[in-house]
Amino acid sequence: MDASSRRNALLEILAGSKEPVTGSSLASRLGVTRQVIVQDIAVLRAQGKEILATPRGYTILSSDRTPGITKLVAVRHSRSETREELYSMVDLGLEVVDVIVDHPVYGQLTGQLSLSTRKDVDDFIKTIEETRAGLLSSLTGGVHLHTVKGRDKSQFDKLEETLREKGFLLTE
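Structure tokens predicted for Transcription repressor NadR (172 residues):
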């Protein structure tokens, strides 16, 4: 299979999946190394394909795949409170799309999350712990934004109430 055919097959796999697909899984399915997949993703992105790399794998950005309301939520908490913060969101049926911080040198930095369940959160926390990676919010004293997606305004009203009660919500 040539590179063009492989990239088309890669797009078909991602488009046909409701969940993110790992680079290793794509490599296995297409008979190449994970590094080839990383290169193919870079080429496809350069061609304008909206492919996201999340902690759970690659996915295609498509507004019609996950309809609903999207809002930004500003929060601050310690590293040890990360699981509690994320649980507060997913327990309300919300998707935590990403995390955003404002870095003094690089400007806005965004990390894709795509967390919708407690299992997603647990897997994310486990990866953070196993890799000893820093959270983006560690660059800003715990202050960060999340893009959060939900079905209706009542979910966001409840989220605001919950985050305020826990002392995580930034309002001023």
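The first helix runs from residue 3 to 16.
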